[in-house]
Design brief:
381 residues, three-stranded mixed β-sheet, alpha/beta, 16 strands, Peptidyl-Arg-deiminase_porph, L-arginine/glycine Amidinotransferase, Chain A, hydrolase
């Protein structure tokens, strides 16, 4: 991985998710309510409700259509093409509902094709549905509800007046109960094994830009209440170097109860992100799950940043940011042919019986995210 110690603003003027500091002043007008929450009601998980692991069957996938040149600059067309590609690919395996601003519905429908349902009733600021959308919970008895994580633009770093309302509006459109968690965060900041164990980085959630005044124990309790979990495995993460403050889903994922995955850097990589990945692997390898059992940890090898297509030093090349849908795993490929092939083989081994799709989503990667970042699953009750 390239050294990310010197983030830059691309010539287009677009501020990527790993190059955000210049934009924080413009975002300051979108402040959240007192205590850092977009809505006030705390949400302990209803009895028996919990967020299932990603591999459970889905009813549909939710996505969002970006249309803001103020956010994306000259990269907008490329990002839209990537969103359309992801939506069309997922739609081969399960229904996809994509939220678009009313003025962009026709363009989104044209780009995504008839297999993707595009709606204009839930306006959006950007495309990061993992962070803005509702986190769905099931009770194992046919029940479904949703919790919102009070999205505040990753700590008021980006315009988010519409995105702050996406979670509750999706829940309302489905007619499912909705409550707001007693913390501020994003879906990409938390991984669950569906069996009581979560993973998260301190840099993202134990951060004054999300949860001022809250201690780790308070945030952990709020997370467990919201997700229906019992414990959190914490990684230190990387603070202030990307807009998310180091979301866990770009590096570490749960495969199932008692089983995880970490994307590893090359042995020669020494930047902050590579050190963070190694620390995550070490911590997860020594951790136990909520049942007290050791967690089995697989590795997926990251690419050689000198061999990928992008030369952007802030590019996010995360194979680990894959999306599991019904019958498939949708992942990225970055142009390092050997690493791309090895990643495909690893994912095929880890998800037997599912098709592995690898997509070129370089515009999205240059914006600091990946396929998991722009999708949100609605599990089957």
């Amino acid at each position: 991985m390239n050294d990310h110690s010197a983030p830059r603003v691309p010539a287009s003027g677009h501020v990527g998710r790993r190059t955000f500091l210049a934009a924080t002043g413009a975002a300051a007008a979108w402040a959240v309510t007192a205590g850092g929450r977009a809505h006030a009601a705390p949400a302990p998980a209803a009895a028996g409700f919990a967020v299932p692991v990603d591999t459970t069957p889905h009813t549909r996938t939710w996505m969002a259509w970006p249309d803001s040149s103020a956010i994306w600059g000259r990269q907008l067309a490329g990002v839209q093409a990537d969103i359309a590609l992801i939506a069309k690919t997922v739609a081969r395996y399960e229904p996809v509902t994509l939220c678009a601003n009313p003025a962009s519905v026709a363009k989104a429908r044209s780009a995504c094709g008839p297999a993707v349902t595009v709606i204009g009733s839930i306006p959006v600021d950007d495309c990061w549905m993992r962070d803005t959308g509702p986190v769905f919970r099931t009770d194992g008895a046919g029940g479904l509800d949703a919790v919102g994580l009070n999205f505040n633009g990753w700590g008021n770093k980006q315009t988010h007046a519409k995105d702050a309302l996406v979670a509750q509006r999706i829940a309302a459109s489905l007619g499912v109960p909705f409550t707001a968690a007693d913390l501020v965060g994003e879906g990409g900041a938390v991984e669950t094994d569906g069996n009581g164990t979560l993973m998260a980085t301190r840099s993202s959630l134990i951060n004054a830009n999300r949860n001022p005044g809250l201690k780790q124990a308070q945030i952990e309790a709020a997370l467990c209440d919201a997700f229906g979990a019992d414990q959190v495995i914490w990684f230190n993460g990387v603070t202030g170097r990307d807009i998310t403050d180091d979301h866990v889903d770009a590096t570490s994922r749960f495969l199932a109860a008692g089983s995880g995955l970490v994307q590893m850097p090359l042995a020669t990589d020494t930047d902050a992100w590579s050190k963070d990945a190694r620390q995550q692997y070490q911590i997860l390898s020594k951790a136990k799950d909520a049942d007290g059992d050791p967690i089995r940890v697989a590795q997926i090898q990251g690419p050689d940043y000198g061999r990928i297509r992008s030369s952007d030093p802030d590019f996010v090349a995360a194979y680990a940011n894959y999306y599991v849908c019904n019958g498939a795993v949708i992942s990225a490929q970055f142009g390092d042919a050997r690493a791309d092939a090895a990643a495909r083989s690893s994912l095929q081994r880890l998800f037997p019986g599912r098709v592995v799709e690898q997509l070129d989503i370089d515009s999205l990667g240059a914006g600091g995210g990946g396929i998991h970042c722009v999708t949100q699953q609605q599990p089957r009750p």
